[in-house]
């Protein structure tokens, strides 16, 4: 059996223990155990909820460079069949955060042993998938005291081959918001519909109406998505449903479009309340700010990537993906980029299996970039 690199082994360990947002207790313990094996002379370590901050003090600091990784998993039952598959039934690292963490630890290991001039701040952020950890972590006393001058992060991209880096200046990821709508009417016997108020019918009507918002209320030169991914209602086949619940997501490329889409959703729900004589409540759940890459820093990074011999750089288009790293970029200049991991299954798929060769390649590339940037 061929040996694997230490950081691939770490990724496999982490893959076994996916935990949901703000429940990453085993993950935090694993990360802290490893971090404490590193040379401690230049490290300052602080915890925040289930997250971790690690400051690497530079030799002659003029600025601080931040590097953020997310650490949570998803409530997805894994179907990869891998020998190191999830040991937490019903949870899975289906968005690559195990890969993200192993890369971050690889970088931290290098810079703990080979410090550069500038200070570095490694941020191990919980709850990226929900309810959202970036904004409260950014607002924490620790990060306000250790606020980086610039910040970067990556996200795996199953559709790109290993060795590929992709990003662009400006907007990279969309504004996103969860969407939950609860309808309540009057239940009753299926044989007497005139005595009841059917929320399955109301829910179906609302879903159809919601699809008209993007087609008729959003500028065709802009982009938006409203997806209802789950409908639940009723109890048995011969009872008219008293309650129904719609669960979905909203994604827009502009802040103005998000505001307009929500206004139209609220107007339509008000209409459903009148038309079906029911009560209704809207909950927008977790909302993520757009990921907007600083043009100057991103252009400089792109030039570096284009000249790095083992990397193929692609200037990609913006995506409707959501990422709460956008909150950090709204306050600190920086950028996010895609890292190719060559998997036939996409993000959030139960069979996602990233090509682990991307881990050591990313560590080598980012070590070179951060060393260059932090010694300028």
Description:
By secondary structure, this protein is an alpha+beta fold. 34% of the residues lie in helices and 26% in strands. A hairpin with a 2-residue loop joins strand 1 and strand 2. The mean pLDDT is 97.
Secondary-structure blueprint:
Elements: H1 6-15, H2 25-35, E1 43-48, E2 51-56, E3 64-70, H3 97-113, E4 119-125, H4 134-139, H5 141-145, E5 150-157, E6 164-167, E7 170-173, E8 175-184, E9 188-189, H6 199-217, E10 224-233, E11 239-240, E12 243-252, H7 255-275, E13 279-283, E14 287-288, E15 291-293, H8 295-306, E16 312-315, H9 325-331, E17 334-340, H10 357-374
Parallel strand pairs: 3-4, 3-5, 5-17, 6-16
Antiparallel strand pairs: 1-2, 2-4, 6-17, 7-15, 8-12, 8-13, 8-14, 9-11, 10-12
Quick structural summary:
The protein is α+β, with helices and mostly antiparallel strands and 376 residues long.
How is the biggest beta sheet arranged?
Answer: 8 strands, mixed
Number of helices: 10
Low-confidence residue ranges: none
Tell me the strand percentage band. Answer: 25-35%
Which properties best describe this structure?
elongated, 34% helix, single chain, alpha+beta, 376 residues, 8-stranded mixed sheet, 10 helices
